[in-house]
Amino acid sequence: MEIDLKPLEFPAIQRLLERRTRTPYGADAARALEPAPSLAVARSLQHAVTAARQGLEAGTLPELGSLPDVRPALRQAGLPGAVLSTQAMHKLQVIMHEGAHLARALAAMPTLYPRDLRELEPPEDLQTRLQGALHPGGALREDASPRLEALHAERTRLRGEVEQVVRARLETLGTSPGARRFQWHQERAVLSLPVDRVVEVKGVRRGATANGRDQIIEPIEAVPLNNQLDSANDGINLEQQRLLRELTDAVRERVPELERVIGAITWIDLAVAAGRLSRQMNAHAPALHETPGVCLREAYHPLLLLQFADGQGPQPVPLSLELTPERPLLLITGPNTGGKTVALKTLGLLVTMAWCGLHIPAEGDCTIGGFDRVMVDVGDHQSLLHHLSTFAGHVEVLKRVLDQATARSLILLDELGTGTDPDEGAALAMAMLDELRARGVCGIVNTHLPPLKDYAARMPGILNASMQFDAVRLAPTYRLVAGEPGISFGLTIAERNGLPPPLIARAREHLAALPTRRADPKANPQGGPRSPAGARQGP
User: Fold this and answer.
1) Does 221 share its domain with 258?
2) Which of 66, 216, 235, 531 reaches 20 to 30 Å from 307, CA-CA?
3) Do 440 and 290 contact (CB within 8 A), yes or no?
4) Number of domains, the chain
5) Residue 261: beta bridge partners?
6) 376 phi and psi angles, rounded to 5 deg
7) Are residues 503 and 466 both part of a single domain?
8) How far is CA 426 from CA 419, 456, 467, 510, 519, in A?
9) Same domain, 389 and 415
10) Are residues 332 and 456 in the same domain?
11) For the chain, what percent of residues have pLDDT higher than 70?
12) Crossing angle, helix 340-355 and helix 302-309, to 10 degrees?
């Protein structure tokens, strides 16, 4: 499904999910979330979200731990001649341990991960190999191989012998302890002496101390043992590198299984994050069908609902509407600030969320059909940079709709026909609606143009609708009323928002004198509510 995600504010949903994930894998999946490629995949994630929601409410859902990102290590392991660090291998151990833990914990929740839970089980041979080679903190064990164990034992013996030799030489100097000191310098046993005492020790000068006051000298009798110690250290380094290459080869052989573990953890983290979001919105899973169409029953715009829950906005008004093969198009009219654009965005956003496998906030049962694309035209397309007027910008979108829209498409067009002469705009909008009706396209079209209301009342496949306006309070209710065309209430709203009453009065006189108004006995120059004749009532 192709969707214009940005105009629908879907990136905000992605960010909400990302903040509720626990792993870098789930966070990346949330940022990249898009509609599923098939109904089966969408339903599979939907069932996982439902299972996560139930587990959260029952307190039986296992908590994902803080997991490192091992994807760079796996990419590196795939390179010829690459050698992973012990830190990278320790991160792999953490991931494998978490996978095994989840596999056991989710045995009673099979729908949370729709594939075989054994995919979470780590490669047993690799896990055993790493456990035998690494300390719990990640450092390489001294007994990771017989040779390494023997070299560490040799180094321990040599360090003890050479330290004994150097300390014995130190005791012969007969000075106070503060004037001389034993230390290790680059893994060699040495003495630190004041400059005026260096001549008393025969040996190799190795430089000065950090403060520059003392000299570092290696007694001559310690040189052979220090050389042997260097050889032992070189041997340890070589054996450690050999072991790391061997362990990296073992990881390389198991990359596919490790990637499956990561894929399963990603799915689970995303599903649990979506379960948290569902619980916060009190949402539920809509029914998904292949056939294009939509039925919303008291559904909410999720972002407005969450703002209200956080105390940052008013309580949103739920939206109910239905698009069917027999009546696939809804023409919404009504005043500015009345909620037409919110209704349009709510539909597009909920369809997108549903096909991503997410729950949607609604009081009643909802059905979301299958669409090949969702095309959106919202906002002002005026661009000085590209020399586009508002009208030209809308035309560009309409061209794309004509090129791509089919009976499996959902179109959401805000203010169709605006930006030019109203009569020409209305004529163009009618022709566009003719084409959309002929193709069986589903969607919502918002407009202020009066001729379109009569057009919709006459044409099969299109239903007039309006955003309700409270004529007593002179305020919008933001509730969609199907079957009734709306009135713009432009002058009423302008007066309510502070324009001088004398100016509004003159505007009403001009409105009454317009040719279209003189010809229409039902016109209401006072700005009060009146339903045009011919409007169909009911859905």
Assistant:
1) no
2) 66
3) no
4) 4
5) none
6) -125, 135
7) no
8) 11, 12, 20, 21, 18
9) yes
10) yes
11) 89
12) 100
Q: Looking at the structure, do residues 94 and 11 belong to the same domain, yes or no?
A: yes
DSSP 360: B
Cβ-contact 394, 431 below 8 angstroms:
no
CA triplet 150, 155, 159: central angle to 5 degrees?
A: 155
In a domain, 313, yes or no: no
Measuring CA to CA, which residue among 118, 61, 113 is closest to residue 266? 113
Same domain, 346 and 271: no
Q: What is the CATH number of the domain that holds 396?
A: 3.40.50.300
The single-letter DSSP state of residue 61 is P
Domain extent at residue 414: 324-354+369-485
CA distances from 309 to 13, 306, 313, 364, 445 (A): 15, 5, 8, 19, 30
Q: How far apart are CA 480 and CA 444, in angstroms?
A: 12
For the chain, what is the mean pLDDT? 87
Which has the closest alpha carbon to 458: 418, 430, 438?
430
In angstroms, the CA 471 to CA 489 distance is 9
By three-state DSSP, how is residue 323 classified?
strand
Mean pLDDT, residues 145-168 taken together: 95
Residue in 405, 302, 404 with CA at minimum distance from that of residue 356: 302
Contacts of 386 (CB under 8 A, 6+ apart): none
Residues 30 and 174 in one domain: no
Same domain, 438 and 498: no
Rg (the chain; Cα; Å): 37
Q: Residue 24 — φ and ψ, nearest 5°?
A: -65, -25
Predicted confidence (pLDDT) at residue 379 exceeds the cutoff of 70: no
Alpha-carbon distance of 279 to 425, in angstroms, equals: 45
d(CA 104, CA 122) in angstroms, rounded, equals 12
* Cα–Cα distance measured from residue 214 to residue 196, given in angstroms and rounded to the nearest whole number: 9
Query: What's the average model confidence in pLDDT over 87-94?
Result: 96
Sign of CA dihedral 184, 186, 191, 196: negative
